[in-house]
Amino acid sequence: MQSLAKCRVTHIVCSSYNHKCRDGIIFTNSNLATGRTITQSSTIGTWLGQQAIDFNPGFKKPSSSCSSTDNQTNPWWRVDLSSVYRVSRVVITNRLDCCPEKIDGAEIRIGNSLENNGNNNPICAVISSIPAGVSSTYTCNNMDGRYVSLFIPGDSRILTLCEVEVYGEGVTKEADLVWGTAAQSTLFYDWYTQNALDGLSSTCSHTTTHTDPWWKLDLMKMYSVNRVTITNRPDCCESRINGAEIQIRIGNSLENNGNNNPICAVISSIPAGFSSTYTCNNMDGRYVSLFIPGDSRILTLCEVEVYGKGVIKQADFVFWETINGFIFLIQCIVR
To answer: Where would one find coiled-coil regions in this protein (predicted)?
Structure first.
């Protein structure tokens, strides 16, 4: 029997001109700070924060190509990378014309918090000194973060940066996967299915009384589900969940409305108005369903939250192809 391979380009992984690819991970040689939003604690004259990422180290005219704060307490500079990256290293170029010691003691911080303007994030490195006009590289050991900041603690300090370069790789972080399409076995008045996804515990989904009621979420593509959080109704009837053996099922089949998929957990009870979290140990699936087996049952859900990461599945073989300088990921399914 002849096998046919149906192949498709999944996505451009990276450009071979300025990236390196290894084991499906993008390692970029490009400065992640380029074109990003810059903020600094103060600005002296025309020494704008954005000038620290303009590819010009300012050796001829630093006032038009370096950033600088005013003389102040705890000056700082921050770049928002717009999403979370795994930062491998940061390169700092010091000014050439004068005052190289002004950067001494600056802290490079990386993280996802904007508390204290991002200066409470974990420290990658502390700059002891950088000679005038020299670029120094600081290894950050793949710290995860959206914000990279430089911060000098102390009074009467000035932070001047002639170039900041940030290098690393993209990170797929755990996300709340509630953007899919929901359905339920029956509808009780205006207790709509989508109410379980609206972020409000005061509005709930509700089936009528019948045999084997269910609620199902189609995530639209496959995810590796880490956990599911269920919020019970606060007003009454919380005991409908108690001992009901509500099954959280995750998988790719719609057989029996998805209720034959593998079980993540069985809910024994949830107090009124409370949220309980169930660990699913990275189960792969497109459909998440809740199902109560038995006669004369009612399924009420005031909030359903699903957390996980995207996965690439359902390919019999995967290969890389370079076309016009771009590297593509090709998935082929043998039929």
So the answer is: none
Cα separation, 319 vs 81, in Å, equals 30
21, part of any domain: no
Q: Which amino acid is at 313?
A: K
Give me the CATH number covering residue 217.
Answer: 2.60.120.260
Final residue in a domain of this structure, among 139, 170, 201: 170
Provide the residue range defining the domain that includes 295.
176-310
Residues pairing with 123 in the sheet: 109
Q: What is the pLDDT of residues 231-265, one digit of tens each?
A: 999 888 887 876 555 677 888 888 898 888 999 98
Report the alpha-carbon distance of residue 208 to residue 189 in Å, rounded: 9
> pLDDT per residue over 135-173, tens digit each?
999 999 989 888 999 999 999 999 999 999 999 887 544
Contact by Cβ (8 Å): 61, 205: no
Domain assignment of residue 261, yes or no: yes
Residue 5 within any structural domain of the chain: no
The CA-based dihedral angle spanning residues 42, 44, 45, 51, taken in that order and rounded to the nearest 10 degrees: -70
